[in-house]
Amino acid sequence: MTRNRPLDPAWLRGMTMPRISRRDALRGGALLSASALLAACGVEGTSGDDAPQESGFWASQTKAGQLDFANWPLYMDTAKVGGKTVHPSLEAFTKETGIKVNYKEAIEDNDSFLGKINPSLQAGQDPGWDLIVITDGGSIEKLIRQNFLTELDHSKLPNFAKNASPSVKNPGYDPANKYTLAWQSGLVGLAYNPKLTKREITSWQDLKDPAFKGKITMFEGETDFPTSVMIMMGIDPAKSTEEDWKRAAEEMKKLKPQIRELVDNSGMAEALSSGNAWISQAYSGDIYQLNIGGSPDIKFVFPKEGATYWTDNMAIPKNAKHPLDAITYMDYVYRPEVAAQLVEGIAYITPVPAAKEQLQAKAAKASGKDRQTLEDLVQSPLIFPTEADLTNVKRYRALTVEEQQVWSGIFQPLVQS
Amino acid sequence: MSARSGRGRLAPYLIGLPGGLWLAIFFALPLLVMFSLSLQSGNVETGFRFTWEWSNYTRAWELYSTQFIRSVVYALVVTALCLVLAYPMAYWIAFYGGARKSTYLFLILLPFFVSFVIRTASWKFILNDQGIVLGPLKEIGLLPEDYHVLATTTAVLGGLTYNYLPFMVLPLYVALERVDPSLVEAAHDLFASRASAFRKVVFPLSLPGVFAGVLITFVPVASDFVNNSILGGTSTTMIGNVIQTVYLTHNNYPLASAMSFLLMAALLIGIFVYARALGTEQVMEVAQG
Fold this sequence. Notes:
The complex is a heterodimer of chains A (417) and B (289). Chain A has 417 residues and is an alpha/beta fold. Chain A folds into two domains: 66-184 and 310-367, D-Maltodextrin-Binding Protein, domain 2; 186-309 and 394-415, D-Maltodextrin-Binding Protein, domain 2, CATH 3.40.190. Helix content of chain A is 41%, strand content 15%. Chain A contains 17 helices and 13 strands. Chain A has helices at residues 9-16, 22-40, 88-97, 110-122, 139-145, 158-163, 194-197, 224-232, 242-255, 265-274, 284-292, 323-332, 336-346, 355-365, 368-379, 387-391, 401-415, and strands at 43-44, 66-70, 79-81, 84-86, 100-104, 131-135, 180-192, 216-219, 259-263, 279-283, 299-301, 307-315, 393-394. In chain A, strands 2, 5, 6, 7, 8, 9, 10, 11, 12 and 13 form a ten-stranded mixed sheet that branches. In chain A, helix 9 packs parallel to helix 17. Chain A is globular and about 90 Å long. Chain A starts with 8 loop residues before the first helix and ends with a helix. The mean pLDDT of chain A is 88. Chain B is mostly helical and 289 residues long. Chain B has one domain (59-287): Orthogonal Bundle (MetI-like fold). Chain B contains twelve helices and two strands; from the N terminus they run H-E-E-H-H-H-H-H-H-H-H-H-H-H. Chain B has helices at 2-37, 55-96, 101-109, 116-126, 134-139, 153-177, 181-189, 194-222, 226-231, 239-249, 253-278, 280-287; strands at 40-43, 47-50. In chain B, strand 1 and strand 2 (47-50) form a beta hairpin. In chain B, helix 10 runs antiparallel to helix 11. The mean pLDDT of chain B is 88. The chains are: A alpha/beta (417), B mainly alpha (289). The A-B interface holds A 37-47, 109, 111-112, 115, 142, 145-146, 214-215, 221, 256, 259-262, 274-276, 401-402, 404-405, 408-409, 412-413, 416-417 and B 32-33, 35-37, 39-40, 42-50, 59, 63-64, 66-67, 128-130, 146, 148, 150-151, 232-235, 237, 241-242, 245-246, 248-253. Strand 1 of chain A pairs antiparallel with strand 2 of chain B.
């Protein structure tokens, strides 16, 4: 009976190979398609197309009589007329040019604002704004790199050519002002209340004084705090390396017990005026506005190790609906009298040095308290810094998108600890 | 006849269809997209590619383990505080509220009529270092000059407890309201003291409420980010804040998604263990209302 029978090949295969039932096949298929599905969820990059601007772009533009302008809060001169807040310099612009300005304080923060308009920019659509104001030190560079801005026609910008300060012409982040013009500049230094600190503050090192434990606020976000700490350590932030960042992170850890909380600029104003903070990292113009707004004690200092100098830049997003109206306005603010009006209203560093003479002339005509205010403005190094003041300013580190991830990995866990 | 029974069999599915579709489109699909994102690599300018990048998860933990652990600890503390505060409140309303029960419940819900952010921000005003509470206490020397509540863990825990208290009160009230007072009387008739009547009759009967209350307080508290951003200081950041920044500000979608999934996993495991410990019948009872 037991005859040596050759093995049935089918049987052999069945015994040795893994058996795939129909159910398994379906399951495998499902697994495969699930991972295909996962892979299909990739996210496109945000960079725009690389096509250069058509040469006839500006020639084909016409005035629309409308300008949609997104700016930061408290960044425009204001006056009260019949209980309503108006912007005199914008009204004068409308009167002269017939361009109606839809002015909105739409920008609270570079990143979140850009996050909002990025989808339209990416899709090559009108982002809803003809003019935006974006800070250097990463954000404006990002827009330029992604080809999201309209190239400017400098033949339409005679006032800029004539009146702009050399410090805002041809900046490192935008050679030959191809895409941007400066709106205002400012400094990141320290502000303090001498009545509470009971001594003068002159240096970033003063933050380490044990007497100020828990009485210091610094800016939230991952840019200003680390940048100022690098300046304290004698590192030029603009040229800093990954090693420097790690050293700065160590220093920030040591400073942490001194710090009460990390704040945005309105939080800084609130903390200083309420007395919750004695010393705070601060923007120069904000402190001027705090002084005239009811907290005269608070002082801004240019720390002896240096301060960060930043510039907010006007730019026209690609595919904006009214570019000619926007560029007309960009040139308008480079008139000395308009620049002077802005200095009076917001007290930042103006890109138009001739505004100084305008203010001096106005002071000579004014009297009493008004005259004093105008003279203070003219003499303030925070608004008209001298060459000597500017030798000690530092710029933000301009980060590529890859460097940004390294930077965030080092600093974000510290600023949100 | 057969047509009718056919429709009868289909009816429950049809009723569930709108809600089911809603969940599928607005919950399941985004969840899948987020899971995919959490395994991608790249950056926002050049785009993200799906590469099974599991290192997003390890990186999220390496960078932000402190904030993860803190969120869970805060959620545990706040849930316990809410329970301790809410139980007597719900008990009192359920057993002694009389005709005004609904008025009391309305009062508990009243804060909800004010925006979450405004409610929290008003704490900032009240607890200011020199404000209406601390100012006078410092003046009469009861508190040292540099004492402050804002920007501390206490402030964040206080804000969280305040904001989530109603979530605990309502389910407790519903459970306690269903306890028949005659059961308590019966316990007394059988010589139970007030304490043991509570311990052996009322409390066990209110357990479904406790279970539900703990659940719907713990989960949102663990992922809250408003209280810390308004009341917090330098060492109170919760994981919700980090996820928000990494997603919206850094546009590092993979890292943020990985963090969200870690948080979700931690919460699900916690709930599972908790449900097992309390017993599934409690869960079922809650589910059945």
